[in-house]
């Protein structure tokens, strides 16, 4: 028998019992759909973490002040004001693995433009901060040296803040050179930042306003005279070829020396390797996606068992037909191929229907659950290929059983 004839006979056999064939394929359909949906959900989680890493910048560390104790009460990390601009300058000069160092001050305040007002985060920063964060401008310019040293009344604005103050439909280029009031201080917008999206904790990074560090300290936050050089955080970008752990140790040793900390005394600062934290989160999301796919694959296994069960029933029902085919010249391999094609056809049709279900499920999850999904062609091919493999694996035993029947015994079967 030719392959075409064998395929035609197998398809005719499936058409005879349409309902049974459909119910048999249901397990494969659900299994493939579940695998594709879970892989898409896991891929979306990985893409979200990768986006967060890119928004953070590559090889980034952050130094924050340590804790302090007041009247017997231990306050949390960042409560002490132990970092200065001089610390940042020393790190840039003495740690050769460092590419850029950016001291910053952070606060919040109300912005007013015309009849619009908006409360947002306000950062005092230097141009190095945007190098550390790999944050570009979409229009305007960066702070100039004389503006940094002279506490100029200029600002860079995030896109969310710009939309809230100037309107959704206003071109971002027109925001430049506009004057707004920041904590009742008039500021001129000199640039609009590129979009960054959400941070790892879900905060909108574009809802922000940047002013020169000296402007924040002298005009907005009103630091006491004894703390004019204090900063809230120091952001650091490490060179691509540098070892992050070694650089972290060098920075820690330098700051302990500058802060005159004795051996055995706790650090009055904390060094956070943000890139490593997000990479660990990425690895966790990758493991989670593999776990979800593995759990969904169980339904494919169940579907394969259903195929084997139905094929065994089919062999039993068609025993006399098998005997008749053998009596008129069909070989054992023809019978084997016929039932094997039936099993694989069930799996493939179920797999293709499962692809449609999986794509629709991924879309619905993304639309209604608000969870990011990433559909990959490799995941679709893997699911369909696995479905075909299930058909071969679970269809082989019933097909082999049919092929080993003796014609005389098959014809006598009642």
Describe it:
- It is a single chain.
- The strands form two sheets. This protein has a six-stranded mixed barrel with strand order 4-5-10-7-9-8.
- The protein is 55% helix and 18% strand.
- It folds into two domains: 3-52 and 280-412, no CATH class; 81-267, no CATH class.
- The chain has helices spanning 3-16, 18-56, 85-94, 127-132, 145-149, 159-166, 213-220, 244-258, 274-317, 319-327, 332-369, 377-403, 407-412; strands at residues 60-65, 69-70, 73-74, 98-113, 116-125, 137-140, 154-157, 179-182, 185-193, 208-212, 233-238, 269-273.
- α2 runs antiparallel to α9 (274-317), α2 packs across α11 and α2 (18-56) packs antiparallel against α12.
- The chain is α+β, with helices and mostly antiparallel strands.
- β8 (179-182) and β9 (185-193) form a beta hairpin.
Q: Overall pLDDT, averaged?
A: 81
Helix content: 55-70%
Low-confidence stretches: 69-76
Largest sheet: 6 strands, mixed, barrel
User: Helix segment count?
Assistant: 13
What is the number of independent domains?
A: 2
Q: Strand order of the main beta sheet, please?
A: 4-5-10-7-9-8
Measured distance between first and last alpha carbons = 27 Å
Order of helices and strands: HHEEEHEEHEHEHEEEHEHEHHHHH
- Radius of gyration equals 33 Å
Given helix and strand content, the structural type is alpha+beta
Shape: elongated
User: In what range is the share of β-strand residues?
Assistant: 15-25%
Number of strands: 12
């Amino acid at each position: 028998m030719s392959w075409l004839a064998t395929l035609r006979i197998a398809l005719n056999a499936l058409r005879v019992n349409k309902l049974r064939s459909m119910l048999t394929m249901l397990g494969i359909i659900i299994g493939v759909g579940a695998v594709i949906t879970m892989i898409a959900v896991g891929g979306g989680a990985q893409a979200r973490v990768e986006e967060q890493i890119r928004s953070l910048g590559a090889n980034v560390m952050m130094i924050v002040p340590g804790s302090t104790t007041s009247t017997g009460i231990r306050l949390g990390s960042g409560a002490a004001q132990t970092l200065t601009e001089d610390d940042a300058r020393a790190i840039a000069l003495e740690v050769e693995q460092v590419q850029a160092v950016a001291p910053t001050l952070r606060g919040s305040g109300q912005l007013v433009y015309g009849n619009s007002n908006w409360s947002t985060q306000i950062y005092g920063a230097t141009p190095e901060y945007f190098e550390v964060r790999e944050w570009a401008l979409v229009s305007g310019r960066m702070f100039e040296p004389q503006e940094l040293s002279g506490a100029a009344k200029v600002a860079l604005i995030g896109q969310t803040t710009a939309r809230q103050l100037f309107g959704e439909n206003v071109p971002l280029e027109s925001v430049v050179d506009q004057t707004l009031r920041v904590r009742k201080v008039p500021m001129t917008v000199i640039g609009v930042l590129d979009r960054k999206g959400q941070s790892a904790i879900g905060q909108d990074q574009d809802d922000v306003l940047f002013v020169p560090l000296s402007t924040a300290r002298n005009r907005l936050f009103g630091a006491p005279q004894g703390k004019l050089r204090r900063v809230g955080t120091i952001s650091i970008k490490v060179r691509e070829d540098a070892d992050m752990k070694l650089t972290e140790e060098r920075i820690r040793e330098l700051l302990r020396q500058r802060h005159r900390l004795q051996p055995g005394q706790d650090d009055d600062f904390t060094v956070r390797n943000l890139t490593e934290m997000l990479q660990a989160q990425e690895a966790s999301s990758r493991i989670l996606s593999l776990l979800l796919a593995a759990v969904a694959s169980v339904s494919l296994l169940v579907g394969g068992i259903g195929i084997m069960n139905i094929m065994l029933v089919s062999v039993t029902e068609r025993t006399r037909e098998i005997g008749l085919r053998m009596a008129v010249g069909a070989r054992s391999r023809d019978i084997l191929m016929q039932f094997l094609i039936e099993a694989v056809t069930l799996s493939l049709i179920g797999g293709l229907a499962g692809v449609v279900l999986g794509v629709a499920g991924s879309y619905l999850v993304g639309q209604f659950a608000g969870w990011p999904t990433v559909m990959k062609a490799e995941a679709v091919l893997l699911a369909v290929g696995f479905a075909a493999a299930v058909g071969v694996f679970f269809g082989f035993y019933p097909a082999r059983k049919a092929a080993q029947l003796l014609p005389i015994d098959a014809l006598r079967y009642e």
